[in-house]
Amino acid sequence: DTPTQGLPTVLIGDTEWMLLDTVHARSDILYHREVPTFVDSNHTGLNLSYFRISAQPTDSLLTSFSVSASGYSVDNLVPTTPTNLSSVIVGADSVRLTWEPSPDSDLQGYRVYRGQSQNFLPTQANLYHAATTDTFFHDTGLQPGDRFYYRVAAIDYNGNYSDLTDAVFGSGLPEAFALKQNYPNPFNLSTTLRFDLPRLTRVSIIVYDLRGREVVRLFNGLHPSGCCHQVEWDGQSADGRELPSGVYFARMVIPPSEGGTPGFAHNIKMLLLR
Q: What CA–CA distances, in Å, run from 201 to 77, 93, 220, 250, 258?
């Protein structure tokens, strides 16, 4: 629908005009009104609308009309922000981004930004892909250990930009297996363990107490490759018991591959404080 839809019309000469508003005369020197246009100016042109003023004395049925004047409105409404931005590692050097489309009829496309931190701000320097009409993008040529965050904005034909999406993480494949130190450490309620996998593999991450007894298995199964995977431990045993303060160890084990690639094992020390 347009702002002028449903308005009454009047015939002036052979031309039908829409009646936009009525203003009572007050002997003012200047009158003003804000009125709608048929359509905003856009990439196809100014889309001029034409206007006339009529005047009618209170003691007469005669009506006089001004000459017509033209004007146009400017589209300053931002597009809808894209939604559901996600990233998937699709190879040793490639990340695939996907998002839901913006529903705006005057949408020109999308801009992809890439930064080093999750809360990076968009600038010309981190504008990574200037224009795409697709709702996906491949970032190729990543090096092992590359770590980036991505955000997407919509742009319409009049140069209006939407807000940016929340950032998503993407990276090249890590060069080696790794189990990172948990954070926070020491911890009270819960702690996060991050790990890197350069290939699809079976992996187990098990927590042990100081006596070497198994406390809980945080993960045990097949896991896709990628950087900065994470699991959380809430300081409880496998049967849900709250464990006492003390030192615990998390051990990640990767078995050797069938092709002869060596396995991996690494421990980290964690301090639980109640």
A: 49, 18, 11, 19, 11
Contact 99, 165 (CB under 8 A): yes
The CATH number of residue 98's host domain is 2.60.40.10
* 168-171 vs 147-156, strand pairing mode: antiparallel
Q: How many domains does the chain have?
A: 3
Pair 161, 185 in one domain: no
**Cβ contact 160:247 at 8 Å:** no
Per-residue pLDDT tens for 190-245? 999 999 888 889 999 999 999 999 999 999 999 988 777 899 999 999 999 999 99
The owner of tokens 């030192």 is 247
* Angstrom distance (rounded) from CA 159 to CA 78: 9
Query: How much is the pTM?
Result: 0.58
> For residues 176 and 195, what is the distance between their CA atoms, to the nearest angstrom?
10
49 forms bridges with which residues in the sheet? 71
Residue 92 belongs to what domain range?
Answer: 83-171
CB neighbours of residue 42 within 10 Å = 15
Calculate mean pLDDT across residues 61-83.
Answer: 87
- Token pair of 162 as six digits: 């939407």
Longest dimension (CA), the chain: 106
pLDDT over 50 at 1, yes or no: no
Question: Could you give the CA distance from residue 41 to residue 21 in angstroms, rounded to a whole number?
Answer: 22
Same domain flag for 160 and 191: no
Question: Taking the CB of residue 228, how many other CB atoms lie within 10 A of it?
Answer: 13
- Which of the listed residues 148, 171, 194 is the one where a domain comes to its end? 171
**DSSP string for 25-72:** --S-S--------SS-BBTTB---EEE--EE--TT----EEPPPEEE-
Question: Of 21, 48, 74, which one is at a domain's C-terminal end?
Answer: 74
